[in-house]
Design brief:
Distance between the termini: 45 Å
Shape: globular
Low-confidence stretches: 1-100
Largest sheet: 14 strands, antiparallel
Strand content: 25-35%
């Protein structure tokens, strides 16, 4: 297929090609053929064929008969094609959608060689250089677009735009010495691009910018997978991505990164984020590109689909899948989760994975990790009959393999839960208060899959033209509100619990009130928070309280607000019930002064099913 054609183009081309139709022809019983001719049967004929050995009296006559039969077959086929096939194709056949063919080993090797040693002539700056606004887009860019010079090719400068609204999107351009600009629509030769997305991209650019679908860069064309130690592989996303800029979020619980391998101008890295309360570590892999961006990769050392597993203990589910234990209401989870405390003696074998690896469960049914996984699921499901396994007993939870353990080739104990026996967390009751300095119209969009909202949240546009007053009163579509409310999973990564406060349940509300004040919430906002959460605290002797700050929430569920606020305060509570106190690093909470147009948001992680 032409690399410049989209799957839709290929489908259209293929639909115009004639298709040979097999037309059955009844054999002439008097025509026995030459005795010494081989008998060839078509693949769709079965049974036994008996051939008599009588020679024909007239070979010329036989030849004429054969030619006549062939002419009839061609005529019938042509009639079928022109008179019948077109009608059938129009009314009845589903359009063919081309799938990208799996590359051959030789193609994979060639792609890897070019990825490491490019043949397309690009060179990259050691660090992207920020430049003035180039105004490549047809709309008012405001401060949402940042431009960088990142490299050069064939005497042209390569520029990069970073558009940050609900997340950041990276795009590349080539600029000639004369100032002519081309948008590089398909920089990755190993990716399949969507024609609808390209149409949108084209409509967002100024008409003076040409749309280049032929240029690509070998050094940005990662093969479908990269090999790491022990014959494991990491896989690129199924969608084209140049990644997001690597930036310091300001969070104190940032992952620990380590280098794995260098591939030309790119570097494969491993990230580890440890949770102090559960003694689990989330592990992921990413590719740092020469653009100063990071693309997160897939990693599956144990098959996650349960189809093909052979169980020697408990029940035998085969239609579910395993998932890493990734707490939170984010859209991104870890590739794997490692236990930092389990030992071989803590486990017992329960079967084999579909590729023959041994899988285990915990021997002790009262193991803290197993108990926590079970409690979190039953709290989430409650008595909701729409949730599979709602009300399941702990014994059945174990039999249904609610927690599965595998030991990988690195010697790590990997912990998985079954998807149907895991909580489907949601970011609960985030409410947004708007305090402009003068009454004005405000637009608010949320980087989350909003499931519930008040007022109704239009997914395509967000809340548009909310009339906000300095006292916080809001008017929207003829109704008055004190705040904007939404619930749903965020698009970004959920922060790790690495610090917090452990208090007796009886002291939890007073502690929450004091800690909200430390983070800058006023009396009304604090009262609203307590009114919502006080009945949702776990019924355990102790409660762990961990707060996430503005920088972390901007990663989890970014807000796009126009006009841009002068002050943004976002707080989010992650809590968990405990049977006894545990040691945690103390959390340092601080507030920021409210200057100018101020936006405040509070929310938390619900332990219950929300929608």
């Amino acid at each position: 297929m032409d690399e410049n054609k989209t799957p839709e183009d290929a489908t259209q081309d293929e639909s115009t090609l004639p298709v040979e139709e097999a037309v059955p022809v009844e054999p002439d019983p008097t025509d026995l053929g030459p005795v010494d001719a081989p008998l060839e049967q078509s693949a769709n004929v079965t049974g036994t064929v008996t051939v008599k050995t009588k020679k024909p009296r007239n070979k010329k006559k036989m030849l004429l008969v054969v030619l006549a039969v062939l002419l009839v077959a061609v005529g019938v086929g042509a009639y079928y094609w022109f008179m019948v096939r077109d009608d059938k194709k129009t009314c009845c056949e589903a359009p063919v959608v081309e799938k990208k063919q799996e590359p051959t080993p030789a193609e994979v090797d060639e792609a890897l060689k070019k990825f490491i040693t490019p043949t397309t002539g690009e060179t990259w700056l050691a660090t992207p250089k920020k430049i003035a606004s180039q105004k490549y887009f047809s709309y008012d860019e405001g401060d949402e677009v940042t431009y960088y010079q990142v490299g050069s090719r064939d005497g042209k400068t390569i520029n990069m735009s970073v558009v940050c609204q609900l997340g950041c999107e990276v795009k590349l351009y080539e600029v000639t010495n004369a100032g002519t600009v081309s948008y590089i629509a398909r920089p990755d030769s190993q990716a399949v691009y969507n024609q609808d997305t390209e149409t949108t991209d084209k409509s967002n650019l100024k008409s003076t910018i040409s749309f280049d679908t032929s240029t690509h860069y070998d050094s940005l064309s990662m093969p479908a997978s990269l090999a790491i130690e022990h014959d494991y592989k990491v896989t690129k996303p199924t969608y084209p991505s140049l990644g997001e800029p690597i930036a310091d979020t300001g969070a104190t619980n940032k992952p620990v990164f380590s280098d794995v391998k260098t591939y030309g101008a790119s570097k494969l890295i491993r990230s580890e984020t440890s949770y102090v309360d559960t003694k689990l570590t989330s592990i992921g892999y990413g590719l740092q590109t020469p653009l100063g961006t990071r693309v997160w990769l897939g990693f599956e050392p144990v098959p996650t689909q349960l189809k093909g597993y052979q169980w020697t203990s408990g029940n035998s589910p085969d239609s579910d899948k395993l998932k890493a234990i990734a707490r939170g209401c984010g859209g991104l989870g870890s590739s794997i989760t490692r236990s930092d405390v389990l030992k071989d003696g803590d486990m017992q074998e329960i079967g084999k994975s579909s590729d023959g690896q041994t899988v285990y469960q915990l021997k002790d049914p009262n193991n803290a990790l197993l108990t926590k996984a079970y409690q979190e699921f039953v709290e989430y499901a409650g008595t909701d009959s729409s949730v599979p396994y709602a009300g399941i007993s702990k014994t059945e939870f174990i039999k249904e393999h609610g927690v599965v353990i595998a030991k990988d080739k690195f010697g790590q104990m990997l912990i998985y839960t079954r998807e149907q026996l895991s909580p489907g967390y949601g970011c609960a009751k985030p409410v947004v208060y708007l305090y402009p300095t003068t009454t004005q119209s405000v637009n608010v969009r949320v980087g989350a899959d909003v499931k519930v909202s008040e007022p109704l949240y239009p997914a395509a546009t967000g809340w548009q033209n909310v009339i906000a007053q300095p006292n916080g009163q809001l008017s929207y579509l003829g109704h008055t509100y004190g705040s904007l409310f939404w619930e749903g999973p965020g698009y970004g990564a959920y922060p790790a619990v690495t610090s917090g406060t452990v208090v007796r349940r009886a002291d939890a509300i007073a502690t929450i009130q004091a800690q909200l004040a430390q983070q800058g919430l006023n009396a009304t906002e604090t009262a609203d928070f307590v009114a919502y959460w006080q009945d949702k605290l776990p019924n355990k002797p102790y409660v762990r309280l961990t707060w996430f700050n503005t920088a972390q929430l901007n990663q989890l569920a970014p807000l796009a607000i126009t006009p841009k606020p002068d002050t943004l305060i976002r707080v989010f509570l992650d809590f968990s019930g405990l049977d006894g106190p545990i040691d945690l690093p103390a959390q340092q909470l601080r507030s920021v002064p409210r200057n100018g147009f101020t936006v405040v948001e509070w929310g938390g992680l619900s332990p219950y099913k929300l929608y």
